[in-house]
Amino acid sequence: MTSDIEPFHAIAISRLAHALKAEGRSIIHMEFGQPSTGAPAAAIATAHHVLDSDGLGYWESPALKARLARHYLETYGVTVAPEQFILTCGASPALLLALISSFEPGARIAMARPGYVAYRNTVKALRQIPVEIPCDASVRFQLTAAALAAIEPAPEGVIIASPANPTGTIIEAGELEAIAAVCRARGIRIISDEIYHGLSYVEPARSMLEFAPDALVVSSFSKYFSMVGWRLGWLLASPEHLEKARTYVGNLFLTAPSLSQHAGLVALDCDDELQGHVAVYARNRQLLLDALPRLGLTSIAPPDGAFYIYADIGHLTDNSLEFCQTLLRDTGVATAPGLDFDPVEGLRFIRFSFAVSTAEVEDAIERLAAWFTT
Ligand SMILES: Cc1ncc(COP(=O)(O)O)c(C=O)c1O
Question: Does the beta carbon of 33 sit less than 6 angstroms from any atom of ligand 1?
Fold first, then answer.
């Protein structure tokens, strides 16, 4: 059945990691893309205060929507109305909303392979059809305008991710503009997942809205804002699409957590603290980029953003899942198998998440060095 979806194998790795930890082993968690830091201090202080003073009913914060609109203007020079934001429990429901409100069952949705596991699986769960475009190191694992132009017949939709998971690569402005032009010409609706914005080590990522004002943008507080468990995100919909998306959100999800909305509003003004996390990730990224080639992992597209390195281990294994399990058992370093991101080529890739402390990255490198060189 097209709606059959595969498990997220990194969860099995994580389960094993926790079992080993319970046996007393020292584990370094590089399998999930979640910051090890908590929410910004001021956001936490606000949450404490709100808990004592607010009934926390169903609620959509007008102040948060207005602040998000200002964020788009200041960051990308894009003018959007506060009403265009639909607040969600993270980017995951926002992606579901974007897909279900845009496409009928049977619609073909293009996406890069490798790509975030939930793109393929959410599309399938909605009985839409993933059209996976193989994207290798020569295109830095990213969709291109040329690849989109070559799909026959034209898909109804495309999911763009920049910076991407699992590779952290960014699509540069000229290519985003070319992708927008191809989509306009071929009638392809764009869903742009911008969840890793704010986390870049080269040029800042540009929003698809700068090039395609009718794109649907999905984002959240989980990554840059370090608020994974607060479950807060948004769908930024064009005015024409808004009512349809609202109808779905009212029926499927109602509102996002009120407490998180109060805290999220404050987090949007915590750049000083959050930039401190980015500096740690930048250091971790460089340590890994320096170390991995010494371990024989030379086929890597250096990540421009996010907090991942996707490494080719094809010279060592043809089963990334087993490889991750053995690596974890032998070294205590938990990584994600490429199989999660690419059902075809992913058996020869693993993904390292460097959203951990620099001390943990240094420790991981030592353990990996000993393991890879024996
Ligand atoms: C590319 C991408 N999009 C969306 C999500 C979902 O994030 P959340 O639902 O926590 O906002 C993730 C989570 O790792 C992701 O990597």
Answer: yes
Cβ-based neighbour number of residue 111 at 10 Å: 24
What is the DSSP code string of 310-355? EEE-TTT-S-HHHHHHHHHHHH-EE-EEGGGT-TTTGGGEEEEE--
Question: Which residue has the least CA distance to atom 16 on ligand 1?
Answer: 165
CA atoms of 77 and 282, how far apart (whole Å): 26
Find out whether the beta carbon of 194 lies less than 6 Å from any atom of ligand 1. no
Q: Which of 220, 226, 231 to mutate to test the pocket of ligand 1 (most atoms within 8 A of CB)?
A: 220
Residues 219 and 242: beta-carbon distance below 8 Å: no
Neighbours of 298 (CB within 10 A): 11
- CA separation for the pair 327, 325 (Å, rounded): 5
Tokens standing for residue 255: 């509102």
The answer, yes or no, to whether residue 1 has pLDDT greater than 80, is no
Closest ligand 1 atom, CA of 91?
11
Q: What is the pTM of this model?
A: 0.95
* C-alpha 278 – ligand 1 centre gap (Å): 18
Q: Cα separation of 353 and 297, whole Å?
A: 15
At 3 the pLDDT is 58
Q: Please give the Cα distance from 248 to 251 (Å, whole number).
A: 5
Strand partners, 111: 132
Instruction: Please state the φ and ψ torsions of residue 327, each to the nearest 5 degrees.
Output: -60, -45
pLDDT in tens, 70-94: 999 999 999 999 999 999 999 999 9
% of the chain residues with pLDDT over 70: 99
Question: Which among 76, 144, 140 is positioned nearest to 110, based on CA atoms?
Answer: 144
Which pair of structure tokens corresponds to residue 265? 């509003």
Q: How far is CA 324 from CA 134, 320, 343, 349, 368, in A?
A: 23, 6, 16, 10, 12
Q: How far is the CA of 92 from the centre of ligand 1 (A)?
A: 6
CB 135 within 8 A of CB 141: yes
* Three-state secondary-structure class, residue 211: coil
Q: In which order are the strands placed within the sheet that holds 189-193?
A: 85-88, 233-236, 216-220, 189-193, 157-161, 108-113, 129-134
Q: CA quadruple 43, 309, 171, 213: dihedral positive or negative?
A: negative
